[in-house]
Amino acid sequence: MQRRIVAVCIAFAFAAVVTLTKQHTQSTNVLKRDNYEHANYGNFKGFFNYALNISNRLASLNVKNFAECSLECIINAACYSFNIAIWSLKNSNSFACHLLASDKYNHSSKFVPSQEFHHYAFVSPCESSPCKNNGRCVSLYKENSYVCLCGDGFSGIYCEIDHWKQMTTSPVCFGASADSFGRFVAPIAGDLLTFKLIYQNGSVECAAGSSSHWGCTYPEMAQDHRLGTIITNSQSVRLLPKDYYFLKGVPCRSHFYGLPGQTVDSPELLFDNFSTPLNVSLGEEFQIWFTEDLYKCGYADNGLGKTCVLVFGLFV
């Protein structure tokens, strides 16, 4: 039987790659594994005083040093990173080693400073942040490559293609009373999936002292149904948001709604998508309303302030 040869390279944030064995250090790959008794190796990068706190640990081991922990990770086919304790266990020369089945790119919110652990991960093709427009990079370690997972409105290998089109060249303003809706027109023809409003300045007021970018902060309002900004067609018929998002059964307040991840003071208001893309013509008019002004319900005590926005459309 052939002897298994394992090579480990550790890359520190402040240093070049440090070779721990003399085997396979010239390879451009960051990871190699096979199902036989042939050579295995991996290049690791260290993140001192950081830990990846995910619950699905592959194994929790006691090891003599970080090299032993890294070898365990290479041998375990499901391992892509590990946390190792900074300090040895009480009355022992061993260190806690946690093998992990993921990396910080797939769980960025769980990658946190730590006074107890250092984190080591295979040198990732995502280190150069190749994905644009907030696309998520997923490492393909065995191929020494990656894929970009693009957010809504973006496509391309690097999420570099932007399908959002600015529909206004200057801010459009809308108020909460006296038919003070904002108006804009489509700068191009095409199939439209949704709208996005980018806050510029101002506010709307649904009652004295209750002002916000997009809705109502009145204390008696339902916490998750306080948005009141509506997109309509030129006949003031609501287009977005869809019925599903509105509060049900309460007079006047039923005209307010909630959208996932959106608040009354979010820097942008991203609407839900049309069930089927809306075909729009060049120069077609759209309107932005405050819900109480549109439906003429509960608007008597609304203030005179206005919210001003830039409008973007997602074309497909």
Mass-distribution shape: elongated
Oligomeric nature of the chains: single chain
The helicity comes to under 10%
Overall number of strands? 26
Class derived from helix and strand content: mainly beta
What portion of the residues fall into strands of 2 or more residues?
Answer: 35-45%
**Average pLDDT, all residues:** 86
Largest sheet: 8 strands, mixed
* Low-confidence parts: 1-7, 10-27
Number of helices: 2
Note the run of SSEs as H and E: EEEEEEHEEEEEEEEEEEEEEEEEEEHE
Over the alpha carbons, how many angstroms does the gyration radius reach?
Answer: 27 Å
CA distance, first residue to last residue: 59 Å
Pfam family, one: EGF
Disulfide bonds: 131-148, 150-159
Domain EGF-like: 122-160
Signal peptide: 1-21
How would you sum up this structure, described in words?
By secondary structure, the chain is mainly beta. It is 5% helix and 40% strand. It contains two helices and 26 strands. Strands 1, 2, 3, 4, 6, 7, 8 and 10 form an eight-stranded mixed β-sheet that branches. Strand 21 and strand 22 form a beta hairpin. The longest helix has 10 residues. It is elongated and about 75 Å long. It starts with 5 loop residues before the first strand and ends with a strand. The N terminus is likely disordered.
Can you give keywords for this protein?
elongated, 316 residues, disordered N terminus, mainly beta, 8-stranded mixed sheet
Write the SSE topology.
Elements: E1 6-12, E2 17-19, E3 31-32, E4 40-47, E5 50-52, E6 57-63, H1 66-75, E7 81-85, E8 95-100, E9 111-113, E10 117-122, E11 136-140, E12 145-149, E13 154-155, E14 161-162, E15 164-166, E16 172-175, E17 182-185, E18 190-202, E19 204-207, E20 210-212, E21 229-233, E22 238-240, E23 268-270, E24 278-280, E25 285-290, H2 291-295, E26 306-315
Parallel strand pairs: 1-4
Antiparallel strand pairs: 1-2, 3-4, 4-10, 5-9, 6-8, 7-8, 7-10, 11-12, 13-14, 15-26, 16-26, 17-25, 18-23, 18-24, 18-26, 19-20, 21-22, 21-25
